[in-house]
Amino acid sequence: MECGREPGGKNVQDLGVCPAAKDRRLDTVHGGKNAGRACWVIAGTFCENAVQGTFALKYRDCTSCRFFRQVKSEEGTEYQTSLVLLKKLKALKR
Question: Which of 62, 79, 85, 92 has a Cα-to-Cα distance from 73 of 20 to 30 A?
């Protein structure tokens, strides 16, 4: 999302590192680094100028997000559904 919350980003000092940018369990998913291209399944991301909660609380908003739609479109048949990603997260508990 180019929000500056990646490690070393311009907004880290004020907002902290985004959980999706540091969660390695989904590294390479959708061609991304860590969970950067699957942020909608990561709790605590910062969107719309507010910290988002759990997947269940934020998913509806995420599906209307420009970035979510872009990833889904780019991935086409290789797109991994949220259910698949959530299962991966559960299997690879921190």
Answer: 92
Q: Where are the alpha helices (DSSP H) in the chain?
A: 12-15, 19-22, 55-63, 66-75, 82-91
pTM: 0.88
**Do 5 and 71 meet the contact criterion of CB atoms below 8 Å apart?**
no
Helix (H) and strand (E) counts for the chain? 5, 2
Closest-CA residue to 75 (of 24, 20, 28) = 28
Residue 81 dihedral angles phi and psi, to the nearest 5°? -65, 160
* Residues found in the chain: 94
At 49 the pLDDT is: 72
pLDDT digits 0-9 by tens, 22-69: 999 999 999 999 999 999 999 988 887 788 888 988 998 899 999 999
Taking only Cα atoms into account, the Rg of the chain, rounded to an integer number of angstroms, comes to 13
